[in-house]
Hints:
The protein is an alpha/beta fold.
Amino acid sequence: MPLYETQTLKIYNSLSGEKETFKPIHQGNVGMYVCGPTVYSNVHLGNVRTFMSFDVIFRYFLHLDYKVRYVRNITDVGHIVDDEDEGEDKIAKKARLEQLEPMEVVQRYTVDFHDILNAFNFLPPSIEPTATGHIIEQIEIIKTIIDNGIGYEANGSVYFDVVKFNKTNHYGRLSGRNIEDMLANTRDLDGQTDKRNPQDFALWKKAEPQHIMRWPSPWSDGFPGWHLECTAMSTKYLGNHFDIHGGGMDLKFPHHECEIAQNEACTGQTPVNYWLHANMLTLNGKKMAKSTGNNILPREILTGENTILSKAFSASVARFFMLQAHYRSILDFSDDAIVAAEKGYKRLMEALSVAKEITPNSKSTIDISAWKQSCYDAMNDDFNSPILIAQLFEGVKFINLLNDGKENLTSADLESFIKAMNAFVFDVLGLEDEKVSDSNNDKLEGTVNMLIEMRKQARDNKNFALSDQIRDQLVALGIQLKDGKEGTTFSV
Length: 492
């Protein structure tokens, strides 16, 4: 019997604002679409947290024995700067500034995106389509929307008539908006746009002569609107009606709202049963921003080459830290928080190592079945990873009691317990056991700390030539020293 038949999963649906029992459209199968990155810059930590949330959701569906088709797109055209319909494409702008072909920009940052996600142990999606690979599909959807009377062409561009659509549908129900309020809070059109209404959004934009990225269409040489690509790719690979659509909270309006409108205008039915939105990540209590310096890239966490953290941290420690908060909660990233997470992560890994040495007994004094169900109950409650982690630390207590001989498990119960611990830690949460190379790490750490002490003594003795020599030779070996108030730390 598949696991999903024994577990009742509840998911918070952004569309209803309530937790609902998950019922797939096709029994035993899940179709899930998640909005992927716009590849014009290095993937930032907030992106990683969002995609990690859906990686865990994907993993849990697989653990429950569902067959999952997980589609996550790459936006490589059509995303206008500031998410408006007027202006320059983000990728085209980057290409112009760096004097590159747009597809060079796309390739560079797509590779970076994959490298980072691989480092953080993400499972790849089932399908990873690109916007530029689905121009034909997007043009066909535009034709259908025009034929259904909701799209209109103006000077080579095509727009979606939100006011007309709203006469028979509710534009704004996902984000809790209504069209009357939106119209009341916008200024009159000033004649510099072809839109009939301020809320109308572009389905196709005519390319200006200087615009590099362009394709032929029945209306003009141009490019598709940003919202259209996800409608085209989600319906192509998951059908007009599928189970789950996810993304960051910032995409709820206008992006996801426009997707719903496009689908309903095209097919006459609502496209998605469950809308899931992951919340944002802050840094030291403030919004992350390159302009203020309150920013850190995922790669900088792993290398320690930053001014935010006291040292480098492994990908699994960073992953463990992020999963200590529920995906719908705001999470604040700080040095103190990740240092504490590292201690917890090491406790968990050490316990799993100890568990392998426990000797079974003729009777059990711990109810393993109840503990296992508590782990499932956590994940069944809208993928509540922090509660799951709390239950895993209950498991750590069991391991310590078993190891001390204060509790006992039969051979069958011990096997079931260890199997469940490993499944939730490694398969569902996606953590990796980094203790495999701990002995080598310990030797390296001891050697470098000895050299750090020698360097300190050299500096105390004003032998700066020797101090600099030690530092420079460590740098040549790929070991970076960082001097701080608390002393000197290093990263590899």
